[in-house]
Amino acid sequence: MSLKAFRGAFLDFVDDPFYASEADSVRYLPDGLLLLEDGKVKVLGTYESLQESYAGIPITAYPDRLIMPGFIDTHIHFPQTEMIAAYGEQLLEWLDKYTFPTEGKFHDKAYAQEIASFFLDELLKHGTTTALVFTAVYPQSVDAFFEEASRRHLRMIAGKVLMDRNAPDFLTDTPETAYEESKQLIEKWHKHDRLLYAITPRFAVTSSDEQLRLAGKLLAEFPDVYMHTHIAENIKEVALVAELFPDSKGYLDVYDRAGLVGTKSVFAHGVQLTDAEFQRLSEAHSTIAFCPTSNLFLGSGLFNLKKAKSIDQPIKVGLGTDVGGGTSFSMLETASEAYKVTQLRGETLSSFQALYLATLGGARALSLENTLGNFEPGKEADFIVLDPRATPLMARRNPSAIATSLPELADQTFATIMLGDDRAIHATYIMGELAYENEAYRQTGAA
Amino acid sequence: MSLKAFRGAFLDFVDDPFYASEADSVRYLPDGLLLLEDGKVKVLGTYESLQESYAGIPITAYPDRLIMPGFIDTHIHFPQTEMIAAYGEQLLEWLDKYTFPTEGKFHDKAYAQEIASFFLDELLKHGTTTALVFTAVYPQSVDAFFEEASRRHLRMIAGKVLMDRNAPDFLTDTPETAYEESKQLIEKWHKHDRLLYAITPRFAVTSSDEQLRLAGKLLAEFPDVYMHTHIAENIKEVALVAELFPDSKGYLDVYDRAGLVGTKSVFAHGVQLTDAEFQRLSEAHSTIAFCPTSNLFLGSGLFNLKKAKSIDQPIKVGLGTDVGGGTSFSMLETASEAYKVTQLRGETLSSFQALYLATLGGARALSLENTLGNFEPGKEADFIVLDPRATPLMARRNPSAIATSLPELADQTFATIMLGDDRAIHATYIMGELAYENEAYRQTGAA
């Protein structure tokens, strides 16, 4: 039994601030103590209340820092790391011109491993500890990703991409090979260490009805794996899907009739969803990954977060960076763009709501709320140490490092979202072990 | 006579890439030599062509860097530095809740000086060498700003804010005091060192007809000073102006009939302009400052850049950060958000077009094209040294530091815009003198 303790200001969520009051959903301890046992949370409480009971345990202290659960990115593509910020196109042309040629390189396992390693280091550097990840069509790209994730003891969800049409030959599989290869990968990787598998048809445009049907069969055979795909990102894409599936009742229906719409199904984007599709996703307890930097960069449109988070018809929502359609690995920058999307819609998004989406909300979106997402006892201790004063401008905007009230914390965290990037991530811990430390802090020897 | 030489890759613009071809508008020298005489450009050419003629002059070399003219920010508020990223409101409520209380502090000259100093350091750190700046209503806030700008030998344009209604008493002047104080400030600061003055009514909502009329009278008396204001940012604001000026033909007309619409008039935002107003701004050779981070953050809307830059009815356009309504001091991040705005409109913005707006386009927008904005002989040598590989992600995305063709440069600069921030600014030079050097490069001893 290994015990560890961390002292600092702690922020996590115990309920959903879209529905519950801040007082009921936000837990904030300006001077807290987090006890870990074998990499999991034993207890979080005020330093004052816990210090005597755990007097013998050495404490890692982070004064002037805010400790939060690690960020959860509910939609990202690891093979697109190197093609982030590709110029000038909307979705369908962007796929043909940039994405497909890049993903072709992932036939080479060694190359896939190199990029997976870089990708996971970038995630940790940006404070992201769990992600739902697209690989490429090649099983070896999945192996490469999971091997690197396993080496880092990360809780990651990923799967082989399924594509049997409307893509270059070198990137396509068949309904049968997609089924067989995915099945083997599930048996190899699902629940291996902290890893989980997602059956991953790219989207309806690049999968035949038969491929989707077999994907649904596989999901029925392994009901606790995930299903991860894209939906209704772009107007031209929606029109193309209608053309490709003339007998479907709509985009979501293409997936639904294949048995792909369930509680562990995650649909990226949903910018162009119809009212009926919102309703169906709510009923099915499926998840939408809201990817604002991508939706703006590719000109896809403004996601209706308010509708997705309505009380009458709630849908599970997570935030996704969608690198490389997204423009940043940072969940802070993603939350900042999410705010701008809501503002353009005449709505708003509080910093607590945004940080909820990036932590416990993301865990719920990925059906991991019993495993991680906040500091409840028994949960895996993946957490980050934030510096709200990481740059001269942030330091001026946030004169106090430690907020003394919820309104002050709301303001401080909002400024941190709007102005912050990876420089605001002082350290990232995985299962209670230091996995990343920002070199700016190593030099000056903080804590 | 003092001669200096800089060697590196150089990028500037000799024409407008919205109208001219890239070949005719972009000047790129992968291995160039820039000669300066007394802080001004003597000549820029290839290293090969110039090295013999100037053999005796010591050369400052920046291998693996891109040297560009300094960025020009055509709309920013120095007193709003500390309130950047204020939560949850659109324009009118945001002014009442955050802006007016903050600007009240600038009655204190010492405080204004402290913020002006911080503000100008932030500009230099982000590669911005010239800006058109709102101060506060107090003449001492103008003095503070110009004194700090003068100490740094910067070419800056600013002016006292005019507001005689719809603002707290402590922030208002009168038509007469506004006229008198502005006149004294013009006589004191306009063309003092490199400084220039702008008559600065905040916007039609906070100025009476009489105040605008006297501002127009002052502009007629000093025809070479600037006029700087806001226009048509937000729908509710436009409606309020219509209500406040029931006999006007529209928002622009309120300024026009006061004599405030001319070739040195700069209007920030213009998101909600009518077709007739676009036409009038084109005819008057006035400028619009496009402020994308602000327009998204405050939910103002998507500026029609394509219309403003149309061939038939061209309008001078510059980019503005609009800090504190804007969310970043970085013109790279501003250009990145400008790209997203155009994408959401189904249009696009090339990296050369964006960088033109941030340099020569900004100079033209401020009628400074004979003074700065590119490396033409005789121009003031305010320039920046960019690192397209400043972070691990940028280094992976931009494998070569030096582009060898225009398409490669377009791609490299686009990625630099999308992924870059102040970390990509290695150094900033003012009149040929080093004014800022990024400490990351000081430590590793680049060049």
What does this structure look like?
The structure is a homodimer of 447-residue chains. Chain A has 447 residues and is α/β, with parallel strands linked by helices. Chain A contains 18 helices and 16 strands. The longest helix of chain A has 17 residues, at 109-125. The first copy, chain A, is globular, with a radius of gyration of 21 Å.
Question: What's the helical proportion of residues of chain A?
Answer: 25-40%
In the CATH hierarchy, the architecture of the largest domain in chain A is: Alpha-Beta Barrel
Can you tell me the CATH superfamily of the largest domain in chain A? Metal-dependent hydrolases
The helix tally of chain A amounts to: 18
Stated plainly, the CATH topology of the largest domain in chain A is called TIM Barrel
**How far do the termini of chain A sit from each other?**
26 Å
Layout of helices and strands:
2 copies of one chain form a homodimer.
Chain A: E1 3-13, H1 22-25, E2 26-37, E3 40-46, H2 47-50, E4 59-69, E5 71-77, H3 91-104, H4 109-125, E6 128-134, H5 139-151, E7 155-159, E8 161-162, H6 175-189, E9 196-201, H7 209-221, E10 226-231, H8 235-244, H9 251-256, E11 265-269, H10 275-283, E12 287-290, H11 292-297, H12 305-308, E13 316-319, H13 331-344, H14 351-358, H15 360-365, E14 383-386, H16 392-397, H17 406-419, E15 425-430, E16 433-437, H18 439-444
Parallel strand pairs in A: 1-4, 5-6, 6-7, 7-9, 8-9, 9-10, 10-11, 11-12, 12-13
Antiparallel strand pairs in A: 1-2, 2-3, 4-14, 14-15, 15-16
Helix pairs in contact in A: 4-5, 5-6, 6-7, 13-14, 13-17
